[in-house]
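call fold target=Dehydrogenase
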Amino acid sequence: MARKLGVGVVGCGNISTTYFKHAPAFKGIEMRACADIKMDAARARAKEFKLRAETVEGLLASGDIDIVVNLTIPAVHYEVSRQAIDAGKHVYSEKPFVLAIKDGLDLKKRAEKKGVRIGSAPDTHLGGSHQLARHLIDTGKLGRITSGTCHVMSHGMEQWHPNPDFFFQPGGGPILDLGPYYIANLVQLIGPVARVAALSSIPARERTISSKPRAGEKIPVTTPTTILALMEFENGAVFTFNASWDVWDSGHAPMELYGEAGTIHMPDPNFFGGELRYTKGEKPLKTLPKWDHPFSVPNEKHPEGMMANYRTAGLADMALAIMQGRPHRCSLELANHVIDIMTGILKSGETRKFVEMQTTCERPAPLGPAAARGLLANKQ
């Protein structure tokens, strides 16, 4: 039997079910235990997925746990990851990786000292549609990418989330909550960012929850909910990134990339699949046929219909990379650079000045169809 690394999850909230449910589809990992500051939550998840319930301290001390998956709230991502690293465990964190670049750089030093790896979500950029866009770029179909746009527009979380408070406090907001999907995808497509600028605002200082069980309750808003950003990439490409939770409707595409030889309209990077449209020069825009990529295949039912959801792919890739002695794609360097960009955008919104990046990174290796199949326990 092929070797597997033991995985323990800290944080048994809603997102944990995604990891527990999808992990068996991948090589190299085996879910073994879960922990939460609320033991009742840990026991419930352990029973649901036939795992071992632990205290956080017990999980970090467990000899059969090689990788700790950090699914706690963003405010404690740094502290939980630090404890796991200091315990000699590899770490894979949900997004946002940390809330300050100094914390990410501290974790890097600790990981290097302990000889362990760190990875971080999002891994949706490993999806078939986004990797097809990467293939078009790498093979020169678009020519040099010179500019582009990103838009993530909605009216916030208070309409559906039962406890939306933290989304509207420092550490929340559309940049830190949804920005990782967009920015990580741009970096894997184009490369690192050199500097950013932004304007930001808080149009509504108070929100009314309309979801149960707290419908009608007022919550304060203390972090920007509309941000209009500029990003200058190291290769000279310039992009706009507009993120808002103050918009009822928008006709903007999630992402558009403009190259010297053509344009691509990309699907929402919050998801693995979706429609990719492409035009070469003056030719009409056309929808490209789906790539023969396993992470394009619909595998999960949603209200909108069947969708492709392969969250946990980044974790599996890291586990296999550890065993194979190669770099992993959802890397610490990528995660830190994404945090650098996002916190730089927020800082620029406060200061009204350009902010230079403190970090850089290499583009992660592409994940073509064959490489993606190599991550799956049962090849599709």
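return ok
The radius of gyration is 20 Å. The chain is about 30% helix and 25% strand.
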